[in-house]
Amino acid sequence: MARQTRIIELPQVLAGVRLLVTAGPTHEYIDDVRFIGNPSTGRMGLELARIAQKMGATVTCVCGPTHITPPPAVRLIPVVSAEDMLAAVDERFADCDVFVATAAVSDYRPEARQQGKLKKKQDTMELKLVRNPDVLQQMGQRRKPNQKIVGFSLEVDNALDYARGKLEKKNCDVMVVTTPAHFGESREAVRIINAQGVIAEVPPSSKTELAERICLMLADLLAGKLPALISCFADKAKPAGNGAASSAGGDK
Ligand code: CTP
Description:
Layout: E1 18-23, E2 28-29, E3 35-36, H1 43-54, E4 58-63, E5 75-78, H2 82-92, E6 98-101, E7 108-110, E8 129-131, H3 135-142, E9 148-154, H4 159-169, E10 174-178, E11 188-193, E12 197-205, H5 207-222, E13 231-232, H6 243-246
Parallel strand pairs: 1-4, 1-6, 4-5, 6-9, 9-10
Antiparallel strand pairs: 2-3, 7-8, 10-11, 11-12, 12-13
Helix pairs in contact: 1-5
């Protein structure tokens, strides 16, 4: 897909910021020629990396297998599996100011990778899978007070409730919530939440526009001034008089 040519100057709001991003899918090999994967292209994470760099950040992107050409001024660390991704992030996390996890990490991997090519035998075969490490959750556990963490959450139903649960479990500051409503389209709508509620509702936008929006939000997050709540979670609702409380609730 041709990238939109935009000639506007981006504000240098991330100057001096060290950003670590995960992007793309992971591939979990069954044998030497087959793997479990998913259709993530890595486009969101790589676009975020590109825009953040243009806004002044020093960006490292740990990226699973992708066909997309990485942005030239971004340090790209290619990885294959979830375990590789964890190792690469683990090594660099202490040196980042902001960690953004956009990767579609495979939650499971085959218990053992077979050497060579598995030959077919019976009509059915069982494959034992074991849980992969959760990269975002592990970084959430070891974050320092001055580090900021942003996760992405793709959900079909009850998107806000599930995303909020992940935000808490993985100790993130902010979660970007996506739904498959615009699957297959190049434009995507997202909501951005913090622990209190929804702070942004972004209408269907291109990946470039989304990346710009998210990078501006990162600058706000680092400055400690996220936008006011659009709606707060029901149990965080304040007594009448607070506009946010009246529109509080779970997913819309
Ligand atoms: N994530 C991660 N490592 C994993 C799984 C997820 O770093 N092993 C990160 C993703 O990059 C994303 C966030 O966690 O930022 C949420 O991922 P998502 O796939 O939406 O949810 P899961 O936590 O995997 O939960 P579930 O699959 O049960 O919905």
